[in-house]
Automatic annotation (TrEMBL):
<keyword id="KW-0408">Iron</keyword>
<dbReference type="GO" id="GO:0051537">
    <property type="term" value="F:2 iron, 2 sulfur cluster binding"/>
</dbReference>
<dbReference type="GO" id="GO:0016020">
    <property type="term" value="C:membrane"/>
</dbReference>
<dbReference type="Pfam" id="PF00111">
    <property type="entry name" value="Fer2"/>
</dbReference>
<feature type="domain" description="4Fe-4S ferredoxin-type">
    <location>
        <begin position="141"/>
        <end position="169"/>
    </location>
</feature>
<protein>
    <submittedName>
        <fullName>4Fe-4S dicluster domain-containing protein</fullName>
    </submittedName>
</protein>
<dbReference type="InterPro" id="IPR001041">
    <property type="entry name" value="2Fe-2S_ferredoxin-type"/>
</dbReference>
<dbReference type="GO" id="GO:0051539">
    <property type="term" value="F:4 iron, 4 sulfur cluster binding"/>
</dbReference>
<keyword id="KW-0411">Iron-sulfur</keyword>
<dbReference type="InterPro" id="IPR006058">
    <property type="entry name" value="2Fe2S_fd_BS"/>
</dbReference>
<feature type="domain" description="4Fe-4S ferredoxin-type">
    <location>
        <begin position="102"/>
        <end position="131"/>
    </location>
</feature>
<keyword id="KW-0479">Metal-binding</keyword>
<dbReference type="Pfam" id="PF13187">
    <property type="entry name" value="Fer4_9"/>
</dbReference>
<dbReference type="InterPro" id="IPR010208">
    <property type="entry name" value="Ion_transpt_RnfC/RsxC"/>
</dbReference>
<dbReference type="InterPro" id="IPR036010">
    <property type="entry name" value="2Fe-2S_ferredoxin-like_sf"/>
</dbReference>
<dbReference type="GO" id="GO:0009055">
    <property type="term" value="F:electron transfer activity"/>
</dbReference>
<feature type="domain" description="2Fe-2S ferredoxin-type">
    <location>
        <begin position="4"/>
        <end position="82"/>
    </location>
</feature>
Length: 226
């Protein structure tokens, strides 16, 4: 049976591609070599943010190219990068949390509360709420709300106040983890044991093992009970 082809428009040019492909696979079918805008292909890395329109709907829609199927007469363009404010900072030299946040991203207070960022998030997160939590100084809440962010950039591309919610969020998570979150005792104990050389012999044995021995160790390893 002949393969069913459908027309799609990539950056304004028509291509006939097999029905049922994702946008990413359709791009490759059409001959595009993806150097940027292509990563994990599993919906986790956020590299393949895409804008598109479909017949019968006047709205611009967004999605990840590796997860969104093509439809007849879809017109699309990828957004592998969007120009944003990306602050450079040293967490060891950072001051108080809110003061540091507003020094790095003073535009965070300009949020209009329009919630456009939430409407385009492929992870169904609520950037407006985690930015608001950060500006209130509630870094624990902001870190929790933004934990599943894949940094695709779609929220920043639509923000009328020119915020970059995902960069604000990653600063908050880094600061919270480094300076505010309680340190897990079992992790500190394990790091101390490693530094004291307790596992040197085991690590040397693993480094010297053959591929087959490593596979056997992996299969027979003990699982931690949760």
């Amino acid at each position: 049976m002949a393969e069913s082809l459908i027309p799609v428009y990539i950056m304004g040019k028509r291509y006939d591609v097999p029905e049922g492909l994702t946008i990413m696979k359709a791009l490759e079918w059409a001959g595009y070599r993806l150097i940027r805008g292509c990563g994990c292909r599993g919906g986790f890395c956020g590299a393949c943010a895409t804008y598109y329109r479909v017949p019968g709907n006047f709205r611009i829609q967004v999605g990840l190219a590796c997860q969104t199927p093509v439809v007849p007469h879809m017109t699309l363009v990828q957004l592998p990068y969007f120009p944003v404010n990306k602050a450079v900072y040293d967490l060891e030299q950072a001051g108080s949390p809110l003061e540091t946040l507003l020094q790095l991203y003073p535009e965070a207070t300009r949020c209009l509360g329009c919630n456009t960022c939430t409407s385009v998030c492929p992870q169904k997160l609520q950037p407006m709420y985690y930015v608001a939590a950060a500006v209130r100084g509630d870094f624990a809440r902001a870190a929790e709300l933004s934990f599943d962010c894949i940094m695709c950039g779609l929220c920043a591309s639509r923000c009328p106040a020119q915020l970059v919610p995902y960069n604000i969020a990653i600063f908050v998570r880094r600061y919270y983890s480094r300076h505010m979150r309680p340190k897990p005792r079992h992790l500190q104990e394990r790091v101390a044991a490693i530094r004291a050389g307790r596992y040197d012999r085991d690590l040397d044995a693993i480094a010297a093992a053959s591929e087959e021995e490593l596979k056997k160790l992996y299969v027979e390893r003990e699982f931690e009970k949760l």
